[in-house]
Amino acid sequence: MPTNQHEDLREKQEKNILVDFIPAVLKNTKSEGYLIEYHFRDKIANKLIRKRYYLNRIVNSYQKKSDGINHARRIVHELNDKLKNGWTPLFETENQRYYTPLLELRDLYLNNKKRDVRPDTMRSYSSMTNMFNEWIEGSNRSGKVTGNFLRYDAICYMDYVYDKGYTNRSYNNTLKGMRALFSWAVEHCYCKENPFANIKTKTKEAKKRILVDEKSRKKISEYLRVKNPQFLIVCQLVYNSAMRPKEIANIQIGNIRLEHRYIVVTEDNAKNKKSRCATITADVIEYLRPLIKNIPDNYYLFGMNKDLKPAAKRCALSKFRKMWDDMRTILKLPQEMQLYSLRDTGMIDLLHAGVDELSVQKHYDHSDLSIQAIYTNHHDPNLNERIFTNAPKF
């Protein structure tokens, strides 16, 4: 701020014309180095109080001193915005992290999280925060510091997400991710409140999946047995063994226990991070027995190759989706019939076969029966016939 404006404010003070603050300025003194100085009014004592904020550590942390000075100037700008809006430092603890540039929050968060989460989860975090940073730069908020990112800014970002055409489900997932990001920021003292905390989620959409009826399963089986027997095993593991596609892609030979008729889903592979044993059926066992003989334990059952045979590198999850989509097109099956539909279908078929709900719950790795109810809420094409055939007489 120009010196003459500071002098005007001081003149008002000398003439007993109350001013609530004297704007922050960046100084560089021989004895103390870089610092910010401003004055704010203590309304209880009814006087201006000088506040100084030392920046040597921030300025000197940059390889180029000009970058450090620019960082300091951004702090001055944000601080003056706050002072104009009536903010004072009374009753709050100052910390340097509050003034961390918003664009740096992403890297700080990812560097912290990469020690605790799986690579697939890290890719999701990286994608979500990358879109957030792109929006920051495109909405002229690149100069903001983390502590001054407010609820209004959060609402603007979520409006941006919705306007991009995201489904309600994707919108809610993005909101969940942003809440997690700023919850971490609050926990680590980069801001005081989570600006996304009170933004409401959108109404959940119904799942766009339908069951894979017996006739369709027969067509799939006959086709894959000839064209792609390895992918047929993937489908059987989803349907019979209640394994998720991501869990299947990560199966290593050492996880397979043919003599005990199960595959170990390790805690770092399981969705809920709890290990379990997924039962495998007799036909899967007979197929796997010669396939995995003499294969190293650290090889993946579904490798990164054209026919999905065991290899040192696992196949990409996207390959499962492409194989399913290609097969579905050739067999002219409905688009709503997805690979994951086999898991829902297997659950319902087990219940219809008389397997008790508690056993099905454990087999499908659900925390409680209410989760099971969500996934079994599908239109059953055989319901009318089943009721008609088995209904007791009045």
Q: What is the beta-strand fraction?
A: 5-15%
**Main β-sheet, spatial strand arrangement:** 1-2-3
Q: Could you estimate the helical fraction of the residues in percent?
A: 40-55%
* Name of the level-1 CATH class of the largest domain: Mainly Alpha
The global form is elongated
Terminus-to-terminus distance? 89 Å
**Series of secondary-structure elements, N-terminal to C-terminal:** HEEEHHHHHHHHHEEEHHHHHH
Question: Any low-confidence stretches, pLDDT <50, length ≥5?
Answer: none
Number of strands: 6
**How many DSSP helices?**
16
Radius of gyration using CA atoms only: 30 Å
CATH superfamily of the largest domain: Intergrase catalytic core
Mean pLDDT: 84
What number of structural domains do the residues give?
3
In short:
The protein is mostly helical. It has helices spanning 3-14, 56-60, 65-84, 102-113, 119-138, 151-163, 168-187, 214-227, 229-239, 245-249, 282-291, 317-331, 341-352, 357-363, 369-375, 383-390, and strands at residues 21-29, 33-42, 47-54, 256-257, 262-265, 276-279.
Write the layout of secondary structure elements.
Layout lengths: L2 H12 L6 E9 L3 E10 L4 E8 L1 H5 L4 H20 L17 H12 L5 H20 L12 H13 L4 H20 L26 H14 L1 H11 L5 H5 L6 E2 L4 E4 L10 E4 L2 H10 L25 H15 L9 H12 L4 H7 L5 H7 L7 H8 L4
Antiparallel strand pairs: 1-2, 2-3, 4-5, 5-6
Helix pairs in contact: 4-5, 8-9, 9-13
